[in-house]
Each structure stands twice: as structure tokens, then as C-alpha cells.
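pasting input
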Amino acid sequence: MNLLNVIWAEMKKSHRHNFNNRLMYFSLFVWPVIQFVDSYYAFKPFNLGQDSPLSRFVPVEKLGLFLITGCLAYIFFWSLVQSAWMMGYEREQGTLEIILLTPAPRTLVMFSRAAANLLEAVWLFSIFAVLTILFMGGLHVAHWWLIPIAVVILMLSAIVWGGFLNTIFLFSRDAGFLYTIFEAPMAFFSGVRMPVMAFPLWAKMIAYAFPLTFVLNILRSIVLDGKNLSAIFQPLLELFLILLCLIIASFILVRYAEKHAKETGNLTLF
Amino acid sequence: MLEAKKLVKYYTMKEKSGWFARKKQQIKAVNGLDLTIKRGEIVGLLGVNGAGKTTTIKMLSTLLAPTSGTLSIDGIDALQQPEAIKRRINMIAGGERMLYWRLSARENLMYFGRLYGLRGSALKNQCDELIKKVGLAESADRPVERYSKGMKQRLQIARGLINDPDYLFLDEPTLGLDAPVARQLRGMVKDLAKKKNKGILLTSHYLEEVEELCDHVYIIEKGHLLLHDTPTRIIQTIVKDRILLVVMDRLTQEDWTWLRQELDNRGIHTQKNETDEGTQLDMTAPFDLTAQFIALTHQRNFHLLRLESKKPNLEDAIIRLAEERELL
Ligand SMILES: Nc1ncnc2c1ncn2[C@@H]1O[C@H](COP(=O)(O)OP(=O)(O)OP(=O)(O)O)[C@@H](O)[C@H]1O
Ligand SMILES: [Mg+2]
């Protein structure tokens, strides 16, 4: 019950605080749509026949579907980088200190914050993605009920990821560098527009440092390749382990961050 | 009762002294402070800028961990069980931060209330009541960024009361407020202690405020306790002088010579000024000299125009104390 209460508090707050400017939707909707259209037409001029290098990894007729799933998952993850970045505001404004003055479970607040921001950030683009998919066709799913499962996997992973990022921002006022780390590199290495399988080894290694890579892999296996649960058991397990690590790390980091703040008084420095 | 014993806070600062080399430097912000607050009592914490007031308040609020020392609130060890303590305390700082500016007063209160586990009608009632109490009912649904400084400060007070704390720590709550608003706040603080039986710690640079509100006062300097007593006794022990200001019909040279001699004999230090009104005398003595002076004026039928006895206040005491410390 307390869980729901804190999530609800965060939802109300972020709705009024982060989304009261309509321009916000520009970066969360118009921008990704442009990205999608851009990458779709960037592939067009090339000879993408059955013998093209790309078609070894993505069937040419499914390119649109491949890209839209990529953009969709990317938006889920990217929007939470943005929301974590706004922790800087809470620090400057002193509200972070007031949150720590309450007895609310800290890690819960971090994850609630991510969950609250996620829904609001992605609904518009999600509608666009669903319409595009219906329009393009070519969906290949083993069982219809795998689709809601895929959505839940995507949401849960994004929330865990976002909560983890929020805790990182507890540590430092200079965590803004994450913004640059995650914007273009995450889009590139996680295989949003290019299949990771087509990467050289060094790039693959970087790719698997982003949880988004694992999520996208599973998502595409379900909606593009029509794989059933047993076929994606191993990637699911891997993703589960990664998320578990992120959750555990968040718990430890939150405690450590608070302890550190209590010793140095660094929450008032910004 | 809140009891802090031998509180110490050292900040360690890492100073860059080269590309990779770092020098550690220690700042002793609070140095062995003993402090108690009973419920229903307003306690003042005074000291110059940097004396360690904010640091002390943050330690009491569990936002800072003391380097050493103990802190217990109603028998609960605050260092061992900070979660339990957080439910019973709250802290309010002056200034306009610590609120979500894009949210309304009601939304701010609802948010923080939920973090204290309040929900449903209990939460709603608590918010309504506090909004009414701090007089923000008409603007409760406007974004905070459109509030004046005083309104933001009143909202801060409401926020600090959201969990109905037993102990409340106020760090310069009237900072930058104009006189009527500050007076209103003082009334509210007094009620919280006397009617709601809350224990209150207050820091302020406005000494009349401290003198008016506080049952007793801690004066600290560089993290050390300098003095702990009631405001009245602090004034009595530090400022022994009483001042009497008199304006009378112009004195003749002869009368003045006589009067000065009499006053000198009684150990009263006098300064004479001739003004348009007449002769003005500023008299200082380590006792209340009004009665003696009036007796003297009767002897020679001097005609008094004005007589004003000045009581020393806490400010005089603090300034005197500072002067004495300088001399040491
Ligand atoms: N986070 C911090 N890191 C290092 N030093 C600090 C920190 N916070 C405060 N100090 C130092 O500790 C000392 C006490 O500061 P504090 O803020 O408690 O003073 P104060 O009595 O509240 O002063 P003021 O009246 O100006 O508010 C000062 O010397 C200050 O420079
Ligand atoms: Mg201070």
C-alpha cells in the first residue's frame, strides 16, 4: 500500500512538474518520429536485396518493423535518462533534502520516480508506434498473449534502468555527463537502428553493457521472429539477472549515497 | 525530551593541491555541544555567521551524521533509529527553496504528506487544515512560483507541520520577511509550543524575536557553547547598566555643577547635551537610578519635560558579550 502511495505521489508530482510544458512532448514524440522516419529512408537508397549484407540479420521486408521497435524501446529508456537528469533540479531546489527528511523508503522513491515519469513520457510515441505497426503489417507473433508480455518486459526493464540512474544522480551534482554518454551511444550500440549481430566484436562488447540491447533482442524475437517463450528463455534469464543486479546495486548505492551525504553535507552543494 | 550530548561535527574537505594530489582539511563546525529541548518549550540557538547553527539543526534533523556524540528523542536513539525519529520531527529553513515551484501549495503538501505515509481523507483533511492555518486558502491552487516570499515561507511552515511533529527545528524562519508577516509567524510559533505542546528550536539573527519567543537560549561560538540561560538572566548577568534619559528646562551653570557632584557621588555616569528643548542628560549606572534622580530634582525644583528609562535587551547583551570576547 505504501508502495502505491509513493508511486502515486511521484506521478502527481512529475505530471505537474515535468510535463506542464507542452514542449516536453516535442522531445518525446516529434523528435523520435523524425528519427524513425530518417533512419527508415536512410536505408531506402541502398540496394537491400536478398543478398545485401544487412539482410543476413534483418529480412528486408521487416526493416520498418525492426526500426519502429528499436525507436519505441529507445524512447522508453531515453525518457528515463531525461527524468534522472532532472534530479539535479531537486538537489538545487533543496527538495531532495526534504525527501530525505521523510521516512519514505528511499529506493522505492527512486523507482517510483522512474515509473511515474515513464508512462507519461512514452504514451504518445507508443500510440504512434502501434499505428505504424498496424499500418506496415508483417507482425509475426507465436501467441497473441506474448505481446502484452513483451510490453511488460519493456516497461519493467525501463523502470529498473531509470531507478538505477536516479540513484546515480544522488551522488553527484556533476552526473550530467551521463546525458552525453547515453544519448547517441545508447541509440547506436543498443541496436536501435542496426542489428547488434552485424557489429564487429569490439562494438558488440560495448553493446552488451547497455540493458537496452537485451530488451530489444527479446522484444524483436517476440514480435518479428515469432519465437515462443521457450525459445527466448535464455535471453530472458540474462535480462532478469541484469535487472536483478541493477536493483541490488540501486539498494546499495542509495544507502551509500545517503550515508555519504550525511557525512559530508554535500546535498547542499550544487 | 530531546537530548543531545557532546555533539561534534567535523567536515572533511578535500582541497586540490595539484592534478591528483589532494589535501585533507578539517573544519570543526560543532564542537561538543550539549542541548536539550522539552516539549512545549521554545529554545533559541544564537551565534554569529558560521557559528554552527545550521549544522546543529541538520544533525538534530538526522540530515547530518555527527562525528561523535549522542542524540536521543523521547528515549529513542536518533543515530540508531533515524526512521523512527523522522516521523516525530520536522525542519523548516528560511528562504524560498525546498518547495516545488511549479506545483501549487496543495500539491506540495499532498506530495510530502504521502511520503509520510498519509493518504486518503486523512491526507486531504490535514492539507486543508494546514492551508487554512497558514492563511493560504485563497491561493492554495496557484503554482508556488507565483507566491510572494512571505507566502512561500508560510507554505514551508505548513510543510514542516504535515507529519504533526513533536519537535520542530526552525532555521531562520523569518529571514527576509517584513515586520507584519514576521510577527504573524512568531504568533504561530508561540501557539505551536504553548497550545500544541511541541518542542521548538529556533535560530534567528533577529534578537528581539528570540527575546520575545524563547524560554531559554543557547549562545554558541565556533561550535562551542558559550552560555545557556533564559533571555532575562542573560541580559541581567551581562548588561548591568541601566540608562535613564531626561530632558529638563535649561539648567543654570550653578545647578549643573551641584547636580553633577550629586550624581558623581552616587556613581552615576552622566553626559549633558544642550538641545532646543532644554538640557538633555544621558545617565548610566549599574542599578535602576530613576528614583534617586527624581529625589534630586525635588530638592531644587527642577522642571522635567521628559523622562525615559531604557531597559537593556538581548541585543545589548550579545553586543556586550561580543565586545568582552574581543578583549580576551
Ligand atoms: N557542507 C559543508 N562542508 C564543509 N564545511 C561546511 C559545510 N557546511 C558548513 N560548513 C562550515 O561549517 C561552519 C558552520 O556552518 P553553519 O552553516 O552551521 O553556520 P551557521 O551558524 O548556520 O551560520 P549562518 O548564521 O551564516 O547561517 C562554517 O565554518 C561553514 O563554513
Ligand atoms: Mg545557518
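fyi Chain A touches chain B at residues 1-2, 5-6, 8-9, 12-13, 16-17, 20, 93-95, 97-104, 109, 259, 261-265, 267 (CB under 8 Å).
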